[in-house]
Write a structure and sequence with these properties.
The structure is a single chain. By secondary structure, the chain is of the alpha+beta class. The N and C termini lie far apart (about 100 Å).
Length: about 325
């Protein structure tokens, strides 16, 4: 039921002026479905006014005065005996306005939804974009600086570096043999995990990896497995993911990390066990270094790697016996 249903038979007299130069004349005003119907005293229809497009005003002589929206020269005045009609017009105008489509409301809804979408994008997508961009643009020299700085925090958690002079020389030869460069390996006295890779291409080994098995090929296998992880898990990106977008922005702007950010990631690195490595990919690394995977596969119970061994009949030793002895004693000079 609409507001008009309550006033279908309501009629009152009013004073209508057709224009600024016209004389006011008495008219009979009735309510239509959504309009005012103005008739003369002979019951001829003079005009229709849309109830949704009326302006309302007041004068000293009239209780209310109405005009078509945008045309104040045409007026309709009501006196005190038309209070019920005035109330009816106002109620119906409000009812008609409420039922009209509201483009402004729809526009506000769309704007709100877009804003919420952009906020979600900025919360979810933007931080990861900043992290990935930072990892992508950092030069190698800065990555190596990050790795060296992070290594200080790692040693605080995993024991000092093993740096016996003769053992270090053997370690450099081991590094060159496996990774193509002499300064890519460091040995930590008590690393909880077997190996870990740091920004700048640095691989850390727990001393236990060197002492738990007699064959250097086993230790070599752990290093090659970590090299494969490093190829698939960018150490710099891992670090930035851990410290978040704000840490990445600080690194971009200032070139360094806060000590607490480094410490936080060092704890994560030391306490997290490494992911498994694809057997076929690891077998290819053994092949590239001209080394059999048999000793490492047996030591770590990897049947697939044993089947994929590129040199099942054996290959030349990865290190001389004397270098291997020096490596095993690296932390006990």
């Amino acid at each position: 039921m609409t507001a008009i249903d309550s006033y279908q038979k309501l009629e009152v007299s009013g004073l209508w002026r057709a224009g600024a130069e016209a004389q006011r004349r008495e008219v009979i005003v009735a309510l239509g479905e959504a309009s005012l119907i103005l008739r003369d005293t002979s019951d001829r229809v003079l005009t229709h006014w849309s109830l949704a497009a009326l302006d309302k005003g007041y004068t000293d002589e009239a209780l209310a005065i109405y005009s078509p929206a945008g045309d104040p020269s045409e007026t309709l005045e009501f006196s005190d005996d038309a209070r019920e009609m005035i109330d009816a017009i106002d109620r119906i105008r409000a009812d008609v306005t409420a039922r009209k489509p509201n483009p402004g409301r729809l526009r506000r809804l769309i704007t709100t939804l877009i804003a919420l979408f952009l906020i979600c994008i900025s919360v979810i997508w933007l931080p990861q974009t900043i992290v990935q961009y930072t990892a992508r643009v950092l030069p190698d020299t800065q990555r190596m600086q990050l790795g060296a700085a992070l290594l200080v925090d790692v040693t605080a958690l995993a024991g000092p570096l093993c740096e016996d002079t003769t053992g270090r020389e053997a370690l450099q030869r081991f590094s060159k043999r496996l990774l193509g460069a002499p300064n890519k390996l460091v040995v930590l006295e008590s690393l909880d995990r077997d190996t870990a890779h740091l920004p700048g291409g640095l691989i850390a080994i727990g001393h236990g990896v060197l002492t738990a098995w007699d064959a250097p090929e086993v230790a070599a296998g752990f290093i090659l497995a970590e090299a494969e992880r490093a190829a698939n898990q960018d150490a710099t990106l891992n670090l930035l993911n851990d410290i978040g977008a704000l840490g990445a922005i600080r690194l971009l702007i200032g070139g360094t990390l806060r000590p607490e950010d480094r410490t936080s990631y060092a704890k994560t690195l030391v306490q997290t066990q490494p992911d498994a490595v694809d057997s076929a990919a690891l077998a290819m690394r053994f092949q590239a270094t001209d080394m059999s995977a048999r000793a490492y596969a047996l030591a770590t119970n990897q049947a697939e790697l044993l089947q994929d061994d590129p040199f099942p009949g054996g290959r030349k030793p990865v290190l001389s016996d004397s270098d291997w002895v020096r490596l095993q004693g690296l932390c006990n000079p």
